[in-house]
Amino acid sequence: MDTGKVVARDDDPRVAELLSQGWHVIAESWAAQLDAHAIDTRELSRLAATAGPYGGVRSAESSDVSAILALDAVTLPHYPGDVATHHEALTPVSAGLSATRRAFGVFEHERALAVTYVDLAGHRAEIDFTVVTPELRGRRLGSAVKAASVLALSAEGVRTFRTGGSAENHAILAANGRLGFVVDERWVTLAAPTTAP
Ligand SMILES: CC(C)(COP(=O)(O)OP(=O)(O)OC[C@H]1O[C@@H](n2cnc3c(N)ncnc32)[C@H](O)[C@@H]1OP(=O)(O)O)[C@@H](O)C(=O)NCCC(=O)NCCS
Predict the structure, then answer these.
(1) Residue 130 beta carbon below 6 angstroms from any ligand 1 atom
(2) Which of 24, 117, 169, 176 could form a disulfide with 128 if both were Cys (CB 3.0 to 4.6 A apart)?
(3) How do residues 23-45 score in pLDDT, each as one tens digit?
């Protein structure tokens, strides 16, 4: 983490203190939660089905990892925000799938069109990131992969889903709202006052 930056919840007393010392807000972010009991299965099924014309959403397998790495490489500059919402480039290790690191995606031949990665810890799921190939954005594929992942994992016993992102990321905020996620934390990234040379 850049030492000239501080990420803090917006209700953290340090925020007012740092602002009074000349620090300034350079980015805002949020976290949101969806509890299994609040899932609207019919709406999520409808959203997941929007990927039907592209082959549908399925659980990713290890044979999909190279296609996922290719999608990640071309979309790296597309994540808005600052350090709090930074997306680290996937590697063959971090893209690897396991019982606690799952992915759901839309795949066409050897290409990944959309993918979402989810880290599991007991009955909790933390959505790491969601990405759609640039030319197919705005066709609800991002919503579809997230909806399908929530449906599949809740059926496997996950009770709590967490996600987060940049306040500038209107598409993922809208997608989460439609899925039923409720924003329960807001964060700010503060930068230190610039010192004169
Ligand atoms: C964020 C992202 C995954 C969204 O995927 P997508 O398939 O384009 O999104 P959807 O088509 O499912 O749209 C979801 C909602 O956002 C809205 N939306 C889409 N693009 C938008 C935009 N540029 N501005 C505002 N709203 C937008 C849609 O209208 C939809 O809302 P609705 O269901 O109420 O109509 C995609 O833009 C992306 O890959 N971005 C780069 C990576 C990233 O930022 N990922 C998220 C952080 S992990």
Answers:
(1) yes
(2) 117
(3) 999 999 999 999 999 999 999 99
